[in-house]
Specification:
Helix content is 91%, strand content 0%. The termini are far apart. It contains two helices and no strands. It has 58 residues and is mainly alpha-helical. The protein has one domain (2-57).
Length: 58
C-alpha cells in the first residue's frame, strides 16, 4: 500500500493538484474497482447456478 501512496504523492507534487481533487479521483477509482468486482461476482454466481440447474434437470 505504501508504494502506491508514495507514487500518488509524487504525482500530486508533479501536477500540483489539490489534495481534494486527488482524493476524489482515488476514491472514484476504488469505487469503480469494487463495482466491477461486484458485477463480476454476480455474473459468475448466475452462470454457476444456471449450469447446476441444467445438470440437475437432465
Amino acid at each position: 500500500m505504501m508504494p502506491v501512496l508514495i507514487i500518488i504523492l509524487g504525482l500530486m507534487l508533479f501536477f500540483k493538484t489539490s489534495l481534494q481533487q486527488m482524493s476524489i479521483l482515488v476514491l472514484g477509482g476504488l469505487a469503480g474497482l469494487w463495482l466491477i468486482r461486484g458485477l463480476l461476482i454476480i455474473l459468475v454466481i448466475l452462470i454457476v447456478s444456471f449450469v447446476l440447474k441444467k445438470k440437475f434437470d437432465m
